[in-house]
Design brief:
The protein is α+β, with helices and mostly antiparallel strands. It has a domain at 420-452. Helix content is 42%, strand content 21%. The protein contains 14 helices and 16 strands. It has helices spanning 3-7, 11-18, 28-35, 68-81, 96-111, 114-128, 242-263, 303-321, 328-334, 339-345, 347-378, 403-413, 422-429, 435-452; strands at residues 51-52, 58-59, 86-90, 130-142, 149-158, 165-170, 176-187, 190-198, 202-208, 213-220, 228-232, 266-270, 278-279, 284-285, 293-297, 390-394. The strands form six sheets. Strands 6-7-8-9-10 form a five-stranded antiparallel sheet, covered by helices on one side. The longest helix has 32 residues, at 347-378. The chain is flat and about 110 Å long.
């Protein structure tokens, strides 16, 4: 059904149609049970109830929760975006206007704090399997983008984790023709539901306080493009490995119960007690009958089997996710390794990142298109030149660089010639407050050594 036909329907029918979701996304309420530690079954008082002791006391069982699902989301985000995304622009370098446009686009990315934004929405995407970024114009005179404008660009992330409901609407060719967001806002102790719909032609907002919807605004979209960057993942990152986390938590908690039960010392007495225990500051004495004795019985725990099961579950968790276990113990055991060795160790993680890059590249391309559309309205003088500029986004998976090894390779390739000037090396070192003064002092010292050296 065409979006124009949907928007002409009765409000209730139109919203019901717009709520139709064309993509299959797991519900956040189900994912939350795996993602949030306190939602894990080990903390369920029905599945793991407290124990009632004979003396009437209630004893809580050991509950050890592991946030490995949340760690997996963080780890994949770190691999993809710890090194900022690079942008390569394609334009006529002799065209002054196009140069200014590229600078303005970079300023927009900078003011939007794009590197932090990429990390935030990546976490939301992998946690909830979907996220949306809204780019909106705010009327405010400024010159932050290299030209005088009446508008500023702002971004906002929407995610099921924040209570937002996202409804993309695609046509038969899988083009996004409408996007709707439903969310609740507390106003004067009342929860108000809002439903916003964005199309290439319209920006519509409805409000519902009790039963019926009322229109807040219905405006023309001057940009001519849906200002939403929506990304979804058909598969949940951590769903297939959550059972391993449940097994780990159960084993650790059960073992914790056993340790707690056997932690108190057990005193074995042979024969009959012949008197009360004598307690002194330095020693305690217990009298027993002839041939009797007293000793503490130590508990010998079989830790190898427990350790093997825990280690195996952890190994399979990270192996199935194709993510590295970069815990302190593992990194400490690696010792000093070269840059090439580090790359080899992260091969699996980089292959995983390669699978994920396509999804983000599509997202960045759409975002770039939105920014260009906004610029056409923010600076009318650039309208004809903006579409002549293209950009490719380069995602570099994280690797701990070995600068020494890299410099040695570059020196060999460069025939042993210097790779940077003295000025550049002083600036990069960063200890000098005045590079010019430092270079002048170095020059004077070299001249002084030259005049006093008898072999020169």
């Amino acid at each position: 059904m065409k979006i124009e036909e949907i928007l002409q329907l009765d409000v209730e029918k139109a919203i019901a149609k717009l709520r139709t979701k064309d993509v299959s996304i797991p519900e956040w309420e189900e994912l939350k049970k795996m993602y949030e530690i306190k939602e894990h079954s080990i903390f369920d008082r029905v599945k793991r109830p407290p124990k009632l002791k004979k003396d009437g006391r209630i004893e809580e069982p050991t509950r050890i929760g592991l946030g490995l699902q949340k760690l997996a989301v963080k780890r994949l985000t770190q691999i993809l975006f710890s090194i900022p995304v690079k942008r390569a622009y394609y334009y006529d370098s002799k065209n002054k206007t196009q140069k200014e446009i590229v600078k303005a686009i970079e300023k927009i990315y900078e003011k939007a704090k794009i590197n932090a934004l990429n990390k935030k929405r990546s976490k939301e995407l992998y946690a909830c399997c979907e996220s949306a970024t809204l780019w909106l114009l705010k009327k405010e005179e400024n010159s932050k983008y290299g030209f005088n404008s009446q508008y500023k660009l702002r971004t906002k992330i929407f995610s099921p984790k924040f209570g937002d409901k996202l409804y993309p609407y695609f046509d038969e060719t899988d083009d996004l023709i409408a996007f709707s967001i439903e969310y609740e806002v507390k106003e004067d102790d009342n929860k108000i539901t809002y439903f916003e719909t964005f199309t290439a032609d319209k920006l519509i907002k409805w409000r519902r306080e009790k039963e019926s919807w009322e229109e807040v605004y219905n405006e023309i979209n001057i940009m001519g493009k849906i200002p939403i960057v929506y990304t979804s993942s058909g598969e949940c990152l951590y769903e297939d490995v959550s059972h391993l986390v449940d097994d780990l938590e159960l084993n650790l908690s059960n073992n914790g119960d056993v340790i707690s039960y056997n932690a108190a010392p057990l005193l074995e007495v042979k024969g009959d007690l012949t008197g009360e225990e004598d307690k002194h500051e330095s020693k305690r004495t217990i009298r027993v009958s002839d041939n009797g004795g007293v000793r503490y019985v130590s508990w010998e725990q079989s830790v190898d089997a427990v350790k093997f099961q825990i280690d195996s579950a952890l190994k399979f968790f990270f192996m199935q996710l194709q993510l590295p276990d970069l815990s302190f113990e593992n990194v400490k055991g690696m010792g000093v390794v070269s840059g090439e060795s580090r790359k080899t160790l992260l091969t699996d993680a980089h292959l995983k990142a390669g699978d994920e890059m396509g999804m983000f590249e599509e997202m960045f391309e759409r975002e770039f298109s939105i920014i260009k559309s906004y610029l056409k309205n923010m600076n009318k003088a650039w309208e004809k030149e903006i579409d002549n500029i293209d950009c490719s986004h380069i995602i570099t998976p994280f690797i701990q660089e070995d600068e020494k090894a890299e410099i040695e390779v570059l020196l060999k390739a460069n025939g042993g010639n210097p790779l940077m000037s003295q000025r550049e090396s002083i600036e990069r070192f960063g200890y000098s407050d005045d590079v010019e003064t430092t270079m002048l002092e170095i020059s004077r010292e070299e001249q002084g050594r030259a005049t006093t050296d008898p072999f020169i």
